UniProtKB/TrEMBL annotation, chain A:
One of its GO terms (biological process) is fatty acid metabolic process. It is found in: Endomembrane system. Residues 190-325 form the Phospholipid/glycerol acyltransferase domain. Keywords: Acyltransferase, Membrane, Transferase, Transmembrane, Transmembrane helix. InterPro entries: GPAT/DHAPAT, Plipid/glycerol_acylTrfase. This is Glycerol-3-phosphate acyltransferase. It catalyses: sn-glycerol 3-phosphate + an acyl-CoA = a 1-acyl-sn-glycero-3-phosphate + CoA.
From TrEMBL, chain B:
Catalyzes the reduction of the glycolytic intermediate dihydroxyacetone phosphate (DHAP) to sn-glycerol 3-phosphate (G3P), the key precursor for phospholipid synthesis. This is Glycerol-3-phosphate dehydrogenase [NAD(P)+]. Its main location: cytoplasm. SUPFAM superfamilies: 6-phosphogluconate dehydrogenase C-terminal domain-like (SSF48179), NAD(P)-binding Rossmann-fold domains (SSF51735). NADPH binds at S19, F20, R39, K40, K109, S157, R272, V296, E298. GO terms for molecular function: glycerol-3-phosphate dehydrogenase (NAD+) activity; glycerol-3-phosphate dehydrogenase (NADP+) activity; NAD binding.
Length: 565, 352
């Protein structure tokens, strides 16, 4: 991967916004929602084997859970008629259950009717509210506002407000296969899969997509974000559809998957955060949520079934990593991670972005002080994880051209095999994780945090992570010389890995080791009240917050670098 | 793609015409059109004209070819029935002609090593799991085929050829591979079970060869049925532990491909692994024995690989470790037996 950051704004690949897939989808929203509801309904019917007893049970489970949710975990964004809707469902269910005059078929039809009401409601709720005018407005607010802030901070004097000396692209560096993704976006459908560390990621990625001149991508954003009005506006403008993590019932999940699959088939470029949620530990995601990923594979197979065998029906998976020196939410994320009992439903939603004011404060900090972000765009792959060439043809490990369609063929015909596609989803997930590690860019702050934590751990090798984070401060100090030697050792290994194409580094890593260390310590988690890594008065390296150090250290987890200690 | 243009029904491919390959090809040929691959031109000629090879009858409808390309073009389903020593080479020859629509089922019991180009088992200090490949992992690494399965179980070729009742396991992560294997092979004399743990099933078939050598040694020492019962039971425990350490499940080992095959192999005096053990106990050296066998007994290689893995992983496997000492470190077989009898196995079963 070359070191040249993309500094210019690309020309749009589709100039007329009427041609944007997401605009077309918004125009046909009503029909699309109906289609999703109908398809989701038939999927649920398929899963219940058209057995009225099983269907009844699923309906009752859903009703029970939804009633519980409405009562125990209401959100501001919930529609006002939640309660009355589920009450109606309950009474219709009761009516069917007690009506003894119904025969098996009639009963089934009655249940199906209730199912249809539910999937329709869900589909309507999930669907995005994209408006091109809002999108344009948001984009210019983001770009204009951000660069004003940036210049105000960096250029001295009264004219600073109007200076254009610095642009957002000095701050947020884009690197990697940008030409390929632009090119493929005009030919087929892109599914972008970025790493996820911060709530800012969605806005950041949205902005990057627009810098690259691509039409907006649709993506599933946590419904909790829509609780905050400023986010809700941005999300809607960016083409977000809503994912409600409180709803784990079959009908909701099937509707959601159907929505994603149909939107991809419609030609909408999509964005999934395949980790499902922000990485709590600070590690690059290693276990991906496969639910949405499977919809990319399903959509690809459906395109082949419909006879779209050329590139227009091809789906490209593009991994992206976002690298920060600083993650605003780090303290609460790592707290969640450490206290997590492994059961997702117990974690509390975080609070850093809970009000518009806090977001504004963060943005101000972010732009007025230098903390760079780099975004690496990976090589595009087909839905089985094979790299593709510039014409979108899949290539096997030896560079031979292969046809993705062949993966879905048995006995010469395209077949639908859910179990097979589950396996393919696992394979794709593994490939994405591999690619994340390859395109991940090491920053100075990652290096120093990693080395700092590992040295402390090595000195206290009897302690596990929970004892380590409670270690008294006097036990934590590393002489600069020792620290530097260890940094060099890790750096050498990183350079070896880079030579094998297993990792990437930021350009500032080419300075001398002393400069890298200073840069790293200055930048690692720079806005936290307690800094993960500092140099004290005597020049020793120490930490003010061990768990934060652990969080930033984790970024280099998964490369076997621990073995150097 | 041009390869799919022919509309005539595809044949079933069998790669390798050793005793097992021939037996499977003949069974497949009862219900399907079959094409076999042999490396040597004269063998192909013999099969196509005389319908026999190496003294074994071949179903007259079976066509033979020596071209990997021709076989891959004519077949969607391929059975790889080749000795493990040749497996990698043959798979590499087929690689350029295989596509993702091919289904591959292999019947090879062995392990391959995934080392750097200049490394061998002698030069590496440690042998980790990712440096050991089962045959399905070889297929996934070397070809673009993903729908891969394996065939394992107590299947002595001679008995299959005679049409005696028998059964096998087809293991694959893909249900469609299992179903296709069952459809093709199942008959009133041949039962086919399915298992989704392909690694566990492959490892069962591989690890049981170690125990088969030990069984031959017991027979060579003139020990009786009590000793054999002891060996089979302790051998099964060891197989479970090794298989788990390599990523297989307990279930696979206690199934047909594990204990089923273990009992058969420990009683089959003709098997190569059994013979190695038997002749060792009679006082021959490993070099003498291997020098007089036309093919390497698979268990010998498996013991070397597993011994290196055991040492790296820090686990204990007394039967494998002691056989390694007998084979490669000049321990007398009686001493190894003594060692095993004194070994503190106090727990009978600790894996269920």
């Amino acid at each position: 991967m070359d070191d040249n950051y993309i500094k210019h704004r690309y020309a749009p690949i589709i100039p007329s916004k009427d041609e944007w897939p997401v605009v077309k989808l918004a125009r046909e929203r009503r029909e699309f929602v109906k289609k999703v509801a109908d398809l989701a309904e038939s999927r649920v019917l398929g899963l219940t084997g058209k057995n009225h007893e099983i269907l009844k049970e699923e309906l009752e489970t859903t009703l029970y859970r939804e009633k519980l949710r409405v009562k125990q975990n209401p959100w501001a964004v919930d529609p006002y008629d939640e309660d009355s809707f589920w009450n109606e469902v309950r009474s219709s269910l009761l009516q069917v259950n007690t009506d003894l005059s119904l025969d098996k078929n009639k009963r089934f039809q009655a249940y199906q009717k209730i199912l249809h009401r539910i999937t329709s409601r869900y589909a309507e709720e999930i669907a995005s509210n994209f408006k091109a005018s809002h999108y344009k407005f948001t984009r210019s607010v983001v770009t204009y506002g951000f660069s004003r802030l940036l210049n105000a901070a960096r250029v001295k004097g009264i004219k600073s407000i109007f200076s254009n000396q610095y642009s957002l692209q000095d701050k947020i560096q884009i690197t990697g296969q940008t030409d390929q993704i632009r090119d493929l976006a005009t030919k087929g459908t892109i599914v972008m899969v970025p790493t996820h560390f911060s709530n800012l990621d969605s806005i950041l990625i949205g902005w990057i997509i627009s810098v690259l001149g691509m039409p907006p991508f649709i993506y599933g954003a946590g419904l909790n974000l829509f609780n905050i009005s400023i986010f809700a506006y941005f999300m809607n403008a960016l083409g977000a559809y809503k994912v409600d993590r409180r709803k784990k019932n079959l009908m909701y999940l099937e509707t959601l998957k159907t929505y994603s699959k149909e939107a991809i088939q419609f030609g909408c470029h999509s964005l999934f955060f395949p980790g499902g949620t922000r990485s709590r530990s600070g590690m690059i995601e290693s276990k991906l949520k496969l639910g949405l990923l499977s919809t990319a594979i399903e959509a690809q197979r459906a395109n082949f079934q419909n006879g779209i065998n050329d590139i227009s029906g091809k789906i490209f998976i593009v991994p992206v990593t976002i690298n920060y020196h600083f993650v605003l939410e780090a303290p609460s994320l790592i707290r969640d991670h450490l206290s997590s009992t492994g059961q997702e439903r117990y974690y509390k939603e975080n609070d850093e972005f809970s009000t518009s004011y806090k977001i504004f404060k963060f943005l101000l900090k972010f732009f007025t002080k230098g903390s760079d972000i780099s975004v690496s765009i990976g090589r595009a792959m087909d839905v089985l994880g094979n790299y593709v060439d510039q014409d979108g043809n899949s290539l096997d490990k030896r560079g031979r051209q292969i046809d993705t369609r062949d993966y879905f063929i048995s006995d010469g015909k395209i077949t639908v095999d859910q179990q097979r596609e589950e396996e393919y989803t696992h394979m794709l997930g593994k490939r994405i994780v591999e690619e994340f590690h390859k395109i991940n860019r090491v920053f100075s702050s990652h290096l120093v945090a990693f080395v700092g934590f590992e040295l402390i751990k090595a000195k206290n090798n009897k302690l596990d992570i929970f004892d380590l984070i409670r270690l008294p401060e006097e036990y934590i100090s590393i002489s600069y010389e020792e620290f530097k030697v260890a940094c060099q050792r890790v750096m050498d290994r990183i350079l070896e890995l880079k030579a094998q194409g297993m990792i990437d580094i930021a350009p500032h890593m080419k300075r001398t080791m002393d400069e890298i260390i200073t840069h790293g310590i200055d930048n690692v988690g720079m806005y936290h009240a307690k800094r993960p890594l500092i140099r004290d008065n005597q020049g020793y390296i120490t930490t003010e917050d061990m768990s934060l150090l652990y969080f930033y250290h984790n970024r280099l987890h998964g490369y076997g670098l621990e073995k150097l200690f | 793609m041009a390869l799919r243009n022919s509309s005539k029904p595809k044949r079933i491919g069998v790669v390798g015409v050793g005793s097992f390959g021939t037996a499977i090809a003949n069974m497949l040929a009862e219900k399907n059109e079959v094409m076999v691959y042999a490396r040597k031109e004269e063998v192909v000629e013999e099969i196509n004209t005389a319908h026999r090879t190496s003294g074994r009858e071949i179903h007259p409808a079976i066509r033979a070819t020596f071209s990997p390309e021709a076989l891959c073009k004519s077949c969607n389903v391929l059975f790889f029935m080749i000795p493990s020593s040749a497996f990698l080479e043959v798979v590499r020859n087929f690689g350029p002609f295989l596509y993702p629509y091919h289904l591959i089922i292999h019947g090879t019991k062995g392990l391959a090593l995934n080392l750097g180009p200049n490394d061998s088992l002698e030069t590496v200090q440690k042998l980790k799991r990712n440096q050991i490949l089962t045959m399905s992992e070889v297929l996934l690494q070397e070809t673009v085929a993903v729908r891969v399965g394996c065939l394992a179980g107590p299947n002595i070729s001679k008995e299959l050829s005679l049409g005696h009742p028998a059964a096998t396991v087809i293991a694959s992560r893909y249900n469609e591979v299992i179903l296709e294997g069952q459809r093709l092979l199942r008959s009133e004399k041949f039962q086919v079970y399915g298992n989704s743990d392909i690694i566990g099933v492959e490892l069962s078939g591989v690890l049981k060869n170690i125990i088969a050598i030990a069984a031959g040694a017991l027979a060579g020492l003139g020990l009786g049925e009590n000793a054999k019962g002891l060996l089979i039971s302790r051998g099964l425990v060891e197989m479970v532990h090794l298989s788990k350490a390599l990523g297989g499940s307990v279930q696979a080992v206690v199934g047909l491909a594990g204990i089923g095959d273990l009992v058969t192999t420990c009683n089959s005096v003709d098997s190569r692994n059994f013979t190695v053990g038997f002749r060792l106990a009679k006082g021959e050296s490993l070099d003498q024995i291997l020098g007089s066998m036309d093919e390497v007994a698979e268990g010998v290689n498996t013991i070397r690989v597993m011994d290196a893995f055991i040492k790296t992983a820090g686990i204990r496997a007394p039967i494998t470790e002691n056989l390694h000492r007998v084979l490669f470190e000049d321990l007398a077989i009686e001493d190894a037996l003594q060692f095993l009898m004194k070994y503190p196995f106090s727990v009978d079963v600790d894996f269920v």
